[in-house]
UniProtKB/TrEMBL annotation:
It comes from Mucilaginibacter roseus. Residues 1-20 form the signal peptide. It holds the Pfam family OMP_b-brl_2. It comes from the Bacteria. Transmembrane segments: none annotated. InterPro entries: Beta-barrel_OMP_2, OMP/PagP_B-barrel. The lineage of its organism: Bacteria, Pseudomonadati, Bacteroidota, Sphingobacteriia, Sphingobacteriales. Residues 21-175 form the Outer membrane protein beta-barrel domain. This is PorT family protein. Keywords: Signal.
Amino acid sequence: MKKFTLIAALLFGVAHFASAQLIPNFQFGAKAGVNLSSFSLSNNNFDGSNRAGYLGGFWARVGGLGFHFQPELYLTGKNVNIEDDNGNVNRVKFTSIDVPLLVGSKVGALGFGGRFYTGPLISFKINDSQNFGGAFSDAVRLRDVKNQNFAWQLGAGVDIQDLSIDLRYEYGLTKQTYNEGNSKARINLFNLTLAYKIFSM
């Protein structure tokens, strides 16, 4: 009887794990967190130091056959102190709507597990020439992509029921302009976020 119970429990666990990995599913949720930016400057006369920023928005996940596609859309603020040779410090802030398009895989079952993912990120900058509404419209429609900034994300996450904790590294592929377009900087950053699954099907 004990062997039967053990075998039944094992088979149930394997079946649940397989169904969680193979059967297509959809999830949607919200997320918020902080980032720590490191700027690689195009001018050797300046040094960049790290400052904390923020991000908040929404994510979706479509999974099946052991893999998932996870597009996201969130507002982010990336900050840095820039010091020149004379010791003058300028605080530069980049505000944008970011759209990561991630592909990954998950291990685990029964609401617990880890995820690994990577993919490109398109950053729709909010500045004097493009306000929040314009950047949001461009991001949702993925419009005017060629004139935006690009990065690549790599990260891992832990799922605990409806909550997820993610840690990512973002490498800037293009240089963003600042100081009225006279200077450029490539943004590399880490971000740590807490996500909540609103619904799934």
